[in-house]
Structure formats: C-alpha cells, structure tokens
Specification:
With about 600 residues, the protein is of the alpha+beta class. It is built from 15 helices and 31 strands. The mean pLDDT is about 90.
C-alpha cells in the first residue's frame, strides 16, 4: 500500500528575495517532515518532494502563494517508502543548467504538445521526429520508439552535440522533444527555435505526464527518476531497477545478477580488473605530479634550512672545524658570514657561534635564504604501485636525494608531496643523470624488508649504456676495486690496493658505426658510480657523462650541459617484500638506445 506522495513540478518565472524565501521553505518542509530538493533561481523554481499526501498538498498551497507561481501544476506518483534522505532548498544560477543565459523560457517559450496529442500523432503515423534530451544513462532505461538519442553526458552538452549530430534538413520537419518532466525541454525548445527549427514542440509534462495520461503506448521500458526509486514504470510505480552507487548507472535485474555487480563497489559498466585499477591509479599519480611541477618547487625562491648531522668522529670539534670537514669545498668566509647574519642555527633554531663545541647526534642548520635550484626533468612515469612499494621510470637529470644544489628539485621531495604522509625511499642507487627503473619502499618498515635483498646481491639489475669506443670482445668483465670516499665533485676512482670490491659484467649489443657501442651491463655489486667508473677505467666512457670524461680525465666543476648521459636502468628483478613473489619491471629504452634497433 502506497503511503507517500511524490511530486515533481517546476515553473520558469522571475523570482526575487531568494534567501528569505529559501529559509521560509526549508523551515516549512522540516515542520511537515517533507524530504527532497527545491531549487530556487531568479528564473524560477524546480521541486522534487515526497511526504505524506496532506503535507505535500500544504507545501503546494504555500508555494502557489508566491507571485508568479500561482496555479503551479504538479505531477504525482505514489511510493511505499520515502525515496529521499534529506530536505534541501538551494539557490542556483539556473534551475536546470544549460549555460546559455540568453535562453529565457518565461518570455520565449517553445510550443507545447500535450501527451494525448502526441499519442494521437503517433497512432495515426504522422511523420514526426522524436528527440530525447536526457542524459545517456537515463535513456538506457527506456525511451519512445524510434526516438533519437544524442548520447549526452550532461544536459549542458545539448547545444553543441545537437549541432554536430542532427542533420540540417531536420530544421524543416516536425520535431517533438521530451525529457523526464519537461523542464529540460523548456530550454532546449527555445534554443531550437533560435537555431532555425521551424516546427519544434516540447512534450508538456514530459515522460511522467505521458505515463499518467497515456500509459506505455509507443514507449519502451521505464523512466529514470532522480530519487531512490531510480526507475518508474508506465503505471508510475517503482520498478525493480537499482543504481550503481559507484558510477550511478541504472541497473535492471539482469545486470544486478551479473557477478561484476557488487553493491557499493562496482557494476558491469564500471568494473575494472586489477590491472585496469592499477593503470588508472598510476595515471592519477602522474596527474598529481603535473600539478606539483609547474613551476618546479625548487625553482621558486625559498628559505632552505640545510641540516648537517654531527657524527661520533666529529666529537669535540668546534662548529667551524666541523663545517670545514663536512663541506671542505666551501671557503671559511662562507661560515663567518653565516654566523654574522644569524644563519647558523641549532635544532631549536637558536643562533650558533663558530667557536662552540659540537656533540655527536647534534644537528646544525645552515640557513640559505633566497634559494633557487637548477631546473630538472620531472617527467616521472609510474610502472607499478601497491601498499608496500612504488616502481617508477626515472627521467634525467633528476637527483634522487637532496644534496649539493638540490633539495626540492629531487625525486624524494616530489614523491613525499604526492604520497604525504608517507615518504617513499629508494631501495637502490640511481645517479641524477641516469634514467630508468627505480624501486622505492613506501614505509621504513617495508624498506627494512626490501633493502636486504640488495645488500645480499639477490636483485638482478640490467642496464643499457652507450659508450665511446668499441670493446675488443663481445663479453667482458671488470672487477677493479673502487674508492669508497667521494673525491672531486663526488667522484670515485679505481683503487687497486685499498679500494672496495666492485664487479660488473658487460655484453656488446651493437657497434653503432659512429665510433660508439651499445652495451648491456649487469652490476654484481652496487657501488656509487660503479658502472660509470668501470667503463671509464676500461677506456669506454659513457657517452654524455659529465664527470668521467674521455682520456681518463675527471671534470673539476659542474657543467650545465643539455647533453644526455647514455646510461639507462633497463630491467630489475626482485622479490616482493611481503609475499616474496618474484617481480620484474622494465623501463622502455630511451631514444639513444632504441635508435640502435637492437633493443626493444
């Protein structure tokens, strides 16, 4: 048995004093336990209300007292439950969004055709074009036989889509447009008249009024309604259709039986496989990045509080002595100026003196106002992501960690903004000038589970390198020990007597005919700059390397060169830190490798 009365009604009429009217109607509806939505605008009113019959009639009587709304008609339908969850009265620019303020239905209405007249026309087979002005998901539930569906995503698209899809000759023919209750046609009709349609009509009262007067004649299916009923049949009774809470698509019983329909999660229209979900998530990360790097955060002047950690070996030194040891390339005058200007600070940001004694564990802050960092390539591409790890294709130049001239224009800083409050950390080394696949842990805990694989040399890494010169053999190795302490510009060198173990395997992929060669490289150990140093030592320096130069020379100062360093982290294989599944990722070869034609 029906307990609730549902009404829908609208009228285009000039309204004023909208704020006090809003408060009055909201209070009136709350007092009568009515629910639904009332839209108010200077162009009129639009209402969808449900409640006990006598209370609904009281509201209609009250609204009809408003100047311009006298005799306001309403379309009725019953339901055995309240289809709305709350009562809203909103002030809008338009009571139905169309985006063309010059269209004024109250002054320039299009001709209307009653439901019974339309039925008579269709019964007698009169030539007429029926045009559905509703959105695509509404049309899915039902429409008039042979009606044109414009496949609209939103009613605001109607002007442009109708211009694109409807043939010019239609302007000479009878066109009857329709929608749910008629309100959309109140704007679409005058728009068509303005566009030069000579015989345009709008179905008075829309589909709901047609159902009320004519039933299902010439109509197939049901009608979508904007409340919890979702759909009503030609008897104006609630149908068995429901709506996907995720994508809002209406679902008939057959679609509700589909295994892809999970209430509140998915339906046959929005269901995505794990791979599709992953891909969408990765692309969303890249969209977030684009909003972060224009402009690059380090290229906007900022105050850089650079922390310097005091270790056990610095115990008992003065601040001056400590700074000279950790940053030997800076002249003493730099620190004297910093002390004088109050830019040497303690962890509590209190000024420090150069003659103070430092203590292990202490942190000294060197404040650098007006910092502007060099530009970097922040075109990061995501390859994989889950709750534990992130795998990316790193561009170059892009430092991974803060150092030297870079703090905010670093991979770690950018990812910390995107993943906040997490701060993903790299599980292995990748130089600023090296491109390719990089694995990161999302938390400290996961870093503790992932990092040991790299320390135990259980991770398989494959690089591509384009070098100057041609190797004598197809396969060769280098096991030359390396210095473990940074030299000029952070460089490492070969140290046969006191260096640390370092091993790299090489395979010739192609001799490129221009004096360069493409190599496949497999580092066995993971020393800083290992591949670059070993190739430099073998007389095959990497093309574009700004530090390890031809002829065994080392650069002594940074060079802002646009030349690409031809070293690319191509593939990596490791075990997932949680379930120990073997995972392999490949970063597509860059142009300098792909153009060789031997790598894909």
């Amino acid at each position: 048995m029906s307990v609730y009365t549902n009404i829908s009604t609208y009228r285009f009429a000039p309204l004023a004093d909208l704020k006090p009217l809003r408060e009055k109607l909201l209070s009136f509806c709350h007092a009568r336990e009515l629910k639904g939505t009332i839209l108010l605008s200077t162009e009129g009113i639009n209402m969808f209300i449900a409640g006990f019959p006598e209370k609904v009639e009281e509201l209609l009587e009250e609204v009809r007292k408003i100047p311009g709304l006298e005799g306001l008609p309403a379309k009725y339908s019953p339901s055995d439950h309240q289809p709305f969850t709350r009562m809203l009265v909103r002030i809008k620019r338009e009571i139905i969004a169309f985006g063309l303020p010059e269209i004024d239905p109250s002054r320039q209405p299009a001709p209307k055709l009653s439901p019974k007249e339309l039925k008579a026309w269709l019964d007698e087979g009169r030539p007429v074009t029926l045009l559905d002005t509703r959105n695509d998901y509404e049309v899915k539930l039902g429409t008039f036989e042979n009606a044109i569906d414009l496949n609209l995503a939103t009613f605001r698209d109607f002007p442009e889509v109708s211009r694109q899809k409807l043939p010019p000759e239609l302007k000479k023919q009878p066109v009857v447009m329709f929608c749910t209750g008629g309100i959309r046609c109140e704007k679409a009709g005058p728009f068509f008249v303005k566009e030069g349609y000579e015989q345009v009509y709008q179905l008075d009262g829309g589909i709901l009024k047609y159902f009320e007067e004519c039933g299902s004649a010439h109509y197939q299916g049901e009608c979508f309604v904007f409340d919890q009923r979702v759909g009503v049949d030609p008897n104006l009774e609630e149908s068995s259709t429901t709506q996907c809470l995720r994508c809002q698509t209406p679902l008939v019983p057959e679609e509700q039986a589909d295994p892809r329909y999970v209430i509140g999660q998915s339906c046959p229209y929005c269901f995505k496989t794990s791979a599709q979900e992953m891909e969408d998530g990765l692309r969303e990360r890249e969209r977030m990045l684009q909003g972060l790097i224009d402009p690059l955060p380090g290229c906007v002047s900022y105050v850089n509080d650079r922390p310097l950690q005091v270790s056990q070996k610095h115990a008992g030194l003065t601040v001056r002595e400590f700074l000279q040891q950790v940053l030997p390339h800076l002249e003493a005058g730099v620190w004297e100026s910093a002390e004088l200007e109050g830019r040497l600070l303690s962890e509590t940001f209190a000024p420090m003196r150069l003659d103070e004694t430092v203590h292990p564990g202490q942190r000294i802050i060197h404040r650098l106002p007006g910092t502007i960092e060099p530009a970097v390539n922040a075109d990061i591409r995501w390859l994989y992501e889950d709750e534990s790890i992130v795998v990316i294709n790193k561009p170059a130049p892009l430092p991974v960690h803060a150092s030297g001239r870079f703090h905010r224009n670093t991979l770690q800083y950018l990812l910390a903004q995107i993943y906040d409050p997490q701060s993903p950390r790299a599980a292995h080394r990748l130089d600023a000038m090296t491109t390719g696949v990089l694995v990161l842990s999302r938390t400290r805990h996961m870093a503790g589970r992932l990092q040991p694989q790299f320390s135990r040399r259980e991770v398989e890494k494959v690089y591509l390198a384009r070098v100057q010169g041609e190797p004598a053999e197809e396969s060769f190795e280098c096991h030359a020990p390396m210095t473990d302490v940074a030299g000029v510009m952070g460089s490492r060198e070969i140290d046969e007597s006191g260096g640390v173990e370092a091993s790299t395997l090489f395979r010739l992929v192609q001799r490129l005919g221009d004096g360069t060669s493409l190599l496949e490289v497999r580092p066995i150990t993971g020393r800083t700059n290992q591949i670059r140093v070993h190739l430099w030592h073998l007389g095959l320096p990497i093309l574009g390397d700004p530090l390890y130069m031809p002829g065994g020379e080392l650069a002594t100062e940074p060079k802002d060169s646009e030349q690409v360093m031809c070293l690319h982290a191509w593939r990596i294989r490791f075990q997932h830190p949680v379930d120990r599944t073997t995972m392999e990722f490949t970063a597509p070869p860059p142009a300098w490798a792909g153009e060789a034609g031997a790598v894909s």
